[in-house]
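Notes from hallway chat w/ T.B., transcribed later so I don't forget. T.B. wanted the structure written out for a chain they're using in a teaching module, and asked if we could keep both sequence and structure tokens in one place. Agreed to drop them here.
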Amino acid sequence: MAQGHKFQDLEETGECLVALINSSQPDKLRRVKDEHQALFDQHAETKKIVTQILKDVAQIEENAGQRLLDMEEEKKRRETELESLEEQLRQATAKSQITDSELQFLQRELESLRNTDHELQTLQNEVDEDTTEVIPSAVYVAQVYYLITKIKWEYDTQPNILKGAHYGADLTTLINIDTSLRSRSDVSDQLWGFVSTEW
């Protein structure tokens, strides 16, 4: 719209110029020429200003566009970093849960070992008591039985086999009895049969 007015002004100036030339008035002609030059200078200055404004606007738009691209890139980078941190947090949480579970398991195992150790200690004490009381007593009883029966037993046999030797006054008799095939009274009678009734 402003350019339309300027062109209209130029047309009017041109018409005035033609009219002045026809009237042959040099002073008016010079004045119109000066006005026309001033108008041209003003138009050139306005064009220069508008061009600079357009350049500035283009530069601002370019800077704004670049800044927007930079912000988008930064946003993507931060989103990637956030996803990575979330994944690390998930892994750390899972590891923490596993560690807690392992810790509870180890604590239970430790408690079980302590209980077992206590039971073993109790059993050891009982064995020690048996060793100091029962074994000497059993040895004494075995020695008495040997003195009475003159039978020396072998102990590395199966549980149902009685194996040993009877040392009589004149004869040594080997003993090999399968207790699973005979009654206890038969076995007892056979063993007592070796015992001398002479004192």
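Follow-up for T.B.: Strands lie at 151-153, 161-167, 172-178. Might be a good example for the class.
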